[in-house]
Amino acid sequence: MGFDDICSPGLVLGLGIPSTEDNHKPRKPSLKTEQSINFEPSLTLSLFGSEAFDKKSDAPPPADDLHRQDSAASSFSNGSVKRERELLSEEVEIERNSSRVISDEDEDGGGSNSRKKLRLTKAQSALLEESFKQHSTLNPLSISQKQKQDLARELNLRPRQVEVWFQNRRARTKLKQTEVDCEFLKKCCETLTDENRRLQKELQELKALKLAQQPLYMQLPAATLTMCPSCERVGGGGGGGGGGVGENASKNHPLIAMASKPHFFNPFTSPSAAC
DNA sequence: ACTGCCAGCTGATTTACATCA
DNA sequence: CTTGATGTAAATCAGCTGGCA
Q1: Which of A40, A50, A83, A105 is deepest in the core (most CB within 10 A)?
Q2: Is position A274 within any domain?
Q3: What backbone phi and psi angles, to 5 degrees, belong to A76?
Q4: Across the strands, what pairs with A11?
């Protein structure tokens, strides 16, 4: 039993890339289909044959829901007072933004250079969100620029700002998803550890039980009972101590050395309730 | 009620890399 | 094979805001 046997439990661990294909060619923008565009960045851990955590197949909710909660909890979170204030200031903001767009286009970030922070209005955010839900990547195959420009026009923003918004949105969605997945993996790890402990204990008990049922002479360690076919004598004895089973014996006779084998526990080869 | 600090959010920039014509 | 254009991810910066002592 090699390391691989222990460590190839049938777990699939993927980060940000759909699990099956294209793992070696993570990005291929121009070949993206609508389908490939729509996947949410994710880190997955699942057992082969298990559909319990197949994010690719039934993934949509987490990232979007997360974001909705996220944005609801951050940008628009603080109750009616804030909302009222936002509503009041929204129109002002729109005017501010649009005038900024015009002046920005004049001199592309130049002038006084006091990097004023643009704040998207609720309406702008909503429209961007809507668009993001449809395709988290502006489709580069055909209408990237057009899409961008249409959106920008609709939002009264510069195309570059739309582009940046999408970039940031993707990055932060991914980050969020990674955090969620990390939590999940931690829980998985804890569960597996617990189960491992439980099974180890069970094994010990079974061993003890088996030992108790054997006649006395059979209760000697297996290695000490190995019989040499040539001299027809039972080998071993005098091992003394846990690790000594093979040591002394094997010095005298090669056959005896292989008698005892460590019992590795592999939580993944047997059905597990962990995940 | 006001103030200063801090953490989190988010728009923007920079850099590196991949892909394609 | 090389090169320029284009698009994206990742890292980072920096302004803004809300919560809290």
Answers
A1: A40
A2: no
A3: -120, 35
A4: A47
| A184 and A224 fall within a common domain | no
Decide which of A163 and A67 is more confident: A163
Nearest nt to the CA of A24 via C1' is B18
Q: What is the pLDDT of residue A218?
A: 66
Q: Are residues A250 and A163 in the same domain?
A: no
A83 touches strand C (CB under 7 A): no
Q: Indicate whether A200 belongs to any domain.
A: no
| A87 CA – B1 C1', rounded, Å | 25
Query: Is A149 found in the same domain as A73?
Result: yes
The number of domains in chain A is 2
Residue A211 lies in a domain: no
d(CA A124, CA A156): 9
Bases of chain B with protein Cβ within 7 A: 8-14, 18-21
How much is the average pLDDT of A45-57?
Answer: 34
The nucleotide closest to A117 (CA, C1' atoms): C15
Burial of A106 (0-12, 13-18, 19+ CB in 10 A): exposed
Q: What tens digit of pLDDT does each residue of A201-234 get?
A: 999 999 999 988 877 766 665 554 455 555 545 4
Strands, DSSP E only, in A123-270? Answer: 227-228, 233-234
Q: Does A31 contact strand B, using a CB cutoff of 7 Å?
A: yes
Q: Are residues A164 and A238 in the same domain?
A: no
- pLDDT on residue A21: 34
Same domain, A224 and A124: no
Boundaries of domain holding A98: 3-189
Residues A142 and A231 in one domain: no
Residue A61 burial (10 A CB sphere; 0-12, 13-18, 19+): exposed
Same domain, A146 and A242: no
CA A133 / C1′ B6 distance in Å: 33
